[in-house]
């Protein structure tokens, strides 16, 4: 067994995609020494445009990243058609290509989704991660790992050769084909592809009769966006093993639309399927998984990165506590996040089924569209895609586990917002009682917990204990029951200061 007595880093993150970088940002808020290892050069990943939905945006606001995301989107050209399509239909999102979501009563803090190139998200998160002290190493690949009771020895390969780095924990954020998952011995069961999608980014030369937007027909579906993106989907085709080519995409466009395209200035082509898989476990000892390494599914509704970013925000503070000697919370990561992934796998499988060609599915879609006219149905699906239905169960108190809505607050130090009070990742005890009873009880935890007395007449309780990820850990009524609050503080954030 390798000597692992002295670790080089508290945490090594394999994969500098959106999820790995978000996790690095989270860990650095708690001073956890963090290395991100990414095999590609910065920005060299597939140039996908990712839809970022309401719950992720609400979380970005609680990390002071939202304004950067919004400003970056305003600088991103070429996505207006998609947005216009939503505006024309007064919808805010689609389900299986039915642009009908968001017509009901769902209220979110964030009025719309953002569309951001993946490289932009990575640039913004890498800037925050490195600016707060994470080390991000590009051009190095994780090729093996071995763990014992003290840490994990990770073998990296780069242009110079092979090195071993020791870390207290390793998180595999290395995507659907995760090397970390394989070396940790974690299975990835699920379903095989039923369909193949191809996507390319370039310009069309020659006759151009392909309409903009998303179109389903008896052969599959295709989509064209003004930024030069063309996608197709076909069922009952076995995905080829060879690397995808421009010609393969053009052939697929011809089969689906009947049009022969000439595609020039091609910046990339890719192929993806509806293969749907969920890791058998999210943790094996000191190795954890997050993002696509833990779950893959068809990218219908643009949910994968959102799911993974929220994995990272759920995991970060718990892993930081483990690095600081309190490993007890780590098991709640899988307990909380796995059911959320299962729901996304369910809805993306359903969407892929609803996109199939054929008269039976035509009928199913027509009926589904009628059902989406019912406000309760529309709200239900809208919340699923936005991620605003996320709730961590397990408490007798039905308020616990819900995301705590932002609100203006009047505090002794002046007006603020709840979201702003969570920006440094500290849990928040918000005391809305007249006599600041909860704040007094929490005094022995103020090294870890921010305590704030405020006025909020509409609050769901007299005192709220809010986790770093924005979800409710405990709620109490006046007069606050000291013992209950002490128990909640100890369970979530460790024993009182001596
Ligand atoms: C066409 C398409 C459109 C999509 N659109 C959306 C959308 O609109 N919204 C949305 O939320 N999601 C969308 N997704 C899903 C989204 O892209 C993924 O869920 C997301 O990228 C997952 O992020 P990740 O960081 O977990 O993994 P990845 O993005 O796969 O990143 C993993 C990183 O790890 C690196 N890596 C891999 N192996 C190693 C190794 N051994 N050593 C070092 N580094 C390694 C890779 O180079 C990569 O940079 C889409 C997916 C596709 C295919």
Question: Ligands in the structure?
Answer: flavin-adenine dinucleotide
Helix proportion: 25-40%
Q: Please describe the biggest sheet, giving its number of strands, its sense, and whether it closes into a barrel.
A: 8 strands, mixed
Mean pLDDT: 92
**Alpha plus pi helix count:** 14
Describe this structure in words.
The protein has 498 residues and is of the alpha+beta class. 32% of the residues lie in helices and 26% in strands. The chain has 14 helices and 24 strands. The strands form five sheets. Strands 1, 2, 5, 6, 7, 8, 16 and 17 form an eight-stranded mixed β-sheet that branches. A six-stranded mixed β-sheet has the order 20-19-22-21-23-24. Strand 11 (213-217) and strand 12 form a beta hairpin. Helix 1 (18-28) runs parallel beside helix 5 (118-131) and helix 1 runs parallel beside helix 8. The longest helix has 26 residues, at 330-355. The chain binds flavin-adenine dinucleotide (FAD). Flavin-adenine dinucleotide (FAD) binds at residues 14-20, 37-40, 45, 48, 50-51, 141-142, 173-175, 179, 199, 272, 291-292, 299, 302-306, 308.
